[in-house]
Amino acid sequence: MHTSIYVFSLALGVALAGISENPLSDSFIEKINNIGSTWKAGRNFDANTPSSHINALLGALPEKGNSLPVAHIEVAEDLPESFDSREKWPECASLKVVRDQSTCGSCWAFGAVEAMSDRICIHSGGKSQTSVSANDLLTCCGWSCGEGCDGGYPSSAWNYWVQHGITSGGLYGTNDGCQSYVFPPCEHHTTGSLPACGESQPTPKCTRKCDNSTLNYKEELTFGKSAYNVPRSENAIKTEIFNNGPVEASFQVYADFLNYKSGVYQYVTGAYRGGHAVKLVGWGVENDVPYWLVANSWNEDWGDKGYFKILRGKNECGFESSIVAGLPKL
């Protein structure tokens, strides 16, 4: 049914392979839109944004083999055509939050703690609204998780949750739990009122103590009961999300993705920029094109209010081959 879409994508990539201008330029954005793909490009980043800033946002490193078991998932037969975790579990506040990783390549940690927070709420029936600390995971997991602000391994983040636990904590400057994120939100993009991002920052030191002196770090630890890879199967991924909540996905980012504004993203043109980890919250169909619904961590000024849709069912940019998740210990 959708064969023409995928053939179009391959042909388009070959046709535009020679484009060498700045991928954030108006001319590059215009060429993408003139082709007439399944998505629309627009300005997210200033055309003069340094490559170093873009690179710092992409922190999912290639996994070191199969560090987690592959879950056996009994695929549901009656899954809906469209699904949004925010609508199924409206009582979970974390599902509605778009975080900002700021000037640190911590997407691997953000995608993990976002899904962990959602799943704690979901599996507690809404009784626990604990926000899992991105800062604690980023700073304390150490070498087993990768290189902190220079990138990490999503599967190791989930394994760390099971073996060591991650304390509570929310966004920068909040009192939401033990340890809030150390870097303030900043304006990566051309619209918005946040302060400029500045230079990429080194990984902060692990402290294992709470910002709020009334809280105890160890008492605030959350733990995973299990951690696993989700099989590379569209229906298995859908079943996992439908039954247990959002998952963490990693994929290959090319230059055109930086300009995403609306529609269903599929690769058009541009050089490979790095690996990125995000939170997958649902799926649907738009203009006969199947998609995954995804929350990014570049604040709400990017893309479609912080979200994007990506082609579903064809492992676009490796999206369906690197899905990790786990269940909370309540």
Automatic annotation (TrEMBL):
It comes from the Eukaryota. SMART domains: Pept_C1. Residues 1-17 form the signal peptide. Residues 79-327 form the Peptidase C1A papain C-terminal domain. GO terms for biological process: proteolysis. GO terms for molecular function: cysteine-type endopeptidase activity. Keywords: Disulfide bond, Hydrolase, Protease, Signal, Thiol protease, Zymogen. Belongs to the peptidase C1 family. This is Peptidase C1A papain C-terminal domain-containing protein. It comes from Henosepilachna vigintioctopunctata.
